[in-house]
Specification:
The complex is a heterodimer of chains A (306) and B (427). Chain A is mostly helical and 306 residues long. Chain A is built from twelve helices and no strands. In chain A, helix 3 runs parallel beside helix 7 and helix 5 packs parallel to helix 10. The relative contact order of chain A is 0.12. With 427 residues, chain B is α/β, with parallel strands linked by helices. In chain B, helix 2 packs antiparallel against helix 14 and helix 17 runs antiparallel to helix 18. Chain B starts with a helix and ends with a helix. In chain B, 49% of the residues are buried. The interface between A and B is large, with 36 and 37 residues.
């Protein structure tokens, strides 16, 4: 009996080991890639943040937490952090509102619906750098189409990219324009997946448009809104190309600079790779914090399934 | 079954290694022998095409050494790419480099000391180079950079706007300059500005000449005394700020073309620039004839800031290619090539032999004006070469002109920031 039970145990153990080996073999390539291209750079970046490396010298001088201490008292850090959070918050909220409305329009059964949907999604598939160049032309104070509109209305239009106050707003406009296209696709899919019967029943019970929106549409769209909020915040905080092309963080640096662009300036223009690494790690922590806060917020407010 | 998984795993690993080795291999076109050199350059338009032509001439004359010229964007873009290439221990053999980066690159060991080559059997005769140019790339006893496309300050002006304002000649002094900026401003019946007198460059390089010629200083050459808040600097920037606030001057953003686009499109009547804009201005000037002039003189006379780019050899250039790389540099810096480049682009043929080789270069009055600045170039690259000083000054300048900040307060802050940053830069 004991031998039989022992044999069974051994067979089960061998079977589990085979399954584990199969599992490891299948995830090993991805795990290696993750270790080499994600985990290792993060660890190395942590080490670099404790040095004063300038990307040019072969040796790195250890400075401990000096970079982090300097970061806390660096006014540029707080300015670019503020710009980034303002940009991310505004773009995500405005884009989702615009996308939600746009999705309703795109969901309407009209002739040429396919063309409208294609045009609406074009901003998302347009290369950001190319879009930024076009927006620079659009916003040109003398020769841009917007300036013609101002002239027709006999208004003195704002000088978007030459004003410290408006440069960030210009970037937000471009961000909303791009993010709306992406988000509208998900909202459209969400609208099309909604159960018609619930809406018909609500309408029969006398629920008006706003009541249906508040008690049916938004709760059912909760998961979509939550997903777009997470991805939107992450994408917005990584913005680099629009800043680099439209304003270079100016007109008076860092008026419209954002975190990732400032990272680039620190590392490649000021030759402070060590300090830039500290910057990057702090930002990594802040982003994780923001995403965790979003998850926590959503825990009770987002409902999956009916 | 187990042996199957082992075969699959081993095969995958081998395939991955083979792919990585293949990707890391250096590509060499078939049939190409001899030494291959990579030359990274900046500047586009006529200034870039002329460099490519010179590279082509070198390749034709030296079949055993072939150089590939690769455009890398602006000076800043090029520097960024050099930094990453140096960190990866792979990069070009010879590169064009602006003055902003020389010291940082040289002190970090990224550039090869050219003195042994300069003073060797196949050196370069610098006896007719202006002292400024001869000493430009000297850092800590070594020579790491040799001037190629030397920039000098140039005032571009709209000759027709000047004629309409009753002016035949450009301003001779800075006082006249400020007054003229107001005189040249054209407003419509509503008081809106149709054409401003002046467009400012968003960088402070033109200010160096203005400050020095008016008796001010920005920094000592060893950076022991940084004086961005020198009273002369405060006074001059306050004067420029007044022009902006009155509408007589503008500072257009870079993305929409900057001060040069404003000039060629007749939004302004004059700009303080360098001859780097020469080809662009004369090619694109829309509906008017531009003129070139020296920057005005100050109380100390004419004192002009040097600028532009030069050539450097990177330490990533293997030892066995350095002689070939030096041959290429020697070719590019020869009087014939400097003269040719000056004629094609407007950059200065900074030596007498280069001017002579360019034939009737100075017969063109525009080139004559540009070259007349050479005797007044101050042999001082100290502001150019320090990111700490230059960046602090640029930021303060932009705050004053764009945001209307108080010049004294902004320059005091810039001075403090530069002094803090220079300690790190020099360590």
């Amino acid at each position: 009996m004991t031998t039989h039970a022992g044999g069974q145990f051994t067979r089960r153990w061998r079977k589990e080991r085979r399954e584990w080996m199969t599992f490891l073999l299948f995830i090993l390539p991805n795990a290696i890639l993750f270790l080499v291209f994600t985990y290792w750079p993060i660890c190395y970046s942590f080490w670099l943040s404790m040095t004063d490396w300038d990307l040019l010298r072969p040796a790195h001088a250890y400075v401990g937490f000096a970079n982090y201490r300097e970061l806390v008292s660096d006014p540029s850090f707080w300015r670019v952090l503020r710009n980034t959070l303002v940009y991310a918050g505004t773009v995500v909220v405005l884009a989702q509102v615009c996308a939600f409305l746009l999705a309703h329009l795109l969901n309407a059964p009209v002739y040429g619906q396919g063309i409208f949907r294609t045009v609406a999604f074009l901003p998302h598939v347009t290369m950001t750098a190319a879009a930024a160049l076009v927006w620079v032309l659009l916003l040109h104070p003398q020769y841009g189409p917007l300036s013609s509109v101002y002239s027709m209305l006999a208004l003195q239009g704002p000088n978007w990219l030459e004003s410290s106050g408006l440069a960030l707003a210009a970037l937000i406009v471009v961000g909303v324009w791009k993010e709306t296209a992406f988000a509208s696709l998900f909202f459209l899919a969400g609208l099309q997946g909604m159960p018609r019967e619930s809406f018909e029943a609500a309408a029969l019970d006398g629920a008006g448009l706003l009541a249906r929106l508040r008690h049916l549409t938004l709760p059912l769209m909760g998961p979509t809104i939550f997903f777009l909020a997470i991805t939107g915040v992450i994408a917005a905080t990584k913005t680099f190309d629009t800043v680099a092309i439209m304003t270079e963080g100016g007109p008076v640096y860092p008026a419209s600079s954002m975190y990732v662009y400032h990272l680039y300036v620190l590392a490649f223009r000021e030759y402070r790779a060590g300090y830039a690494s500290a910057f990057a790690l702090v930002f990594f922590a802040i982003t994780i914090g923001v995403v965790l806060a979003q998850f926590r917020f959503a825990l009770r407010r987002v409902h999956y399934g009916e | 079954m187990k042996s199957h998984y082992i075969r699959v795993f081993t095969g995958s690993v081998c395939l991955g290694i083979a792919v990585m080795i293949g990707a890391c291999g250096e590509k060499r076109p078939r049939g190409v022998t001899g030494t291959q050199l990579a030359y990274w350059r900046t500047l586009s338009g006529a200034s870039g095409e002329a460099q490519d032509e010179l590279v082509q001439r070198f390749n034709t004359a030296n079949p055993s050494t072939q150089v590939t010229s690769e455009y890398q964007g602006t000076y800043g873009d090029l520097a960024t790419k050099l930094v990453t290439a140096t960190a990866a221990r792979s990069g070009p053999d010879v590169t064009q480099l602006g003055t902003f980066e020389i010291r940082q690159f040289a002190r970090s060991g990224a550039l090869v000391d050219l003195r042994p080559y300069l003073e060797g059997a196949r050196g370069i005769d610098r006896s007719d180079w202006p002292p400024t140019m001869a000493r430009a790339g000297e850092i800590d006893g070594g020579v790491y950079w040799l001037p190629f496309n030397v920039a000098v300050p140039v005032l571009y002006y709209n000759t027709e706007a000047f004629a309409r304002a009753g002016r035949a000649a450009p301003p001779e002094t800075w006082t006249e300059f400020f007054s003229l900026a107001r005189t040249l401003t054209v407003r419509n019946e509503d008081g809106a500005v149709q054409q401003a007198g002046l467009a400012l460059w968003s960088i402070t390089w033109p200010m160096f000449s203005m400050v020095w010629s008016e008796g001010g200083e920005l920094t000592s050459r060893d950076y022991s005394n940084i004086t961005l808040n020198d009273p002369v600097v405060v006074k001059l920037l306050a004067e420029l700020q007044s022009l902006i606030q009155e509408g007589s001057a503008i500072m257009p953003d870079k993305a929409s073309g900057g001060h040069r686009a404003a000039f060629v499109n007749r939004r302004v009547a004059m700009i303080l620039d360098s001859q780097d804009a020469f080809s662009e201005v004369f090619k694109l000037a829309h509906g008017f004839m531009p003129g070139v002039a020296n920057y005005p003189a100050g109380v100390k006379g004419k004192i002009y800031a040097p600028g532009g780019g030069g050539l450097a050899m990177l330490s990533t250039c293997p030892e066995d290619r350095r002689e070939a790389a030096w041959s290429f540099m020697r070719f590019m810096l020869a009087p014939e090539q400097i003269g040719y480049y000056a004629k094609q682009t407007g950059y200065a043929a900074y030596s007498a032999s280069a001017q002579a080789s360019a034939g009737d270069l100075l017969g063109d009055p525009r080139y004559a004006v540009i070259h007349s600045t050479l005797p007044f170039i101050r042999a001082d690259f100290s502001v150019n070469m320090s990111p700490a000083v230059r960046t602090s000054f640029d930021e303060a300048f932009q705050k004053i002109m764009v945001e209307g900040a108080d010049p004294q307060t902004a320059l005091d802050a810039a001075d403090a920031k530069a002094e803090a940053a220079i300690k790190r830069e020099l360590s």
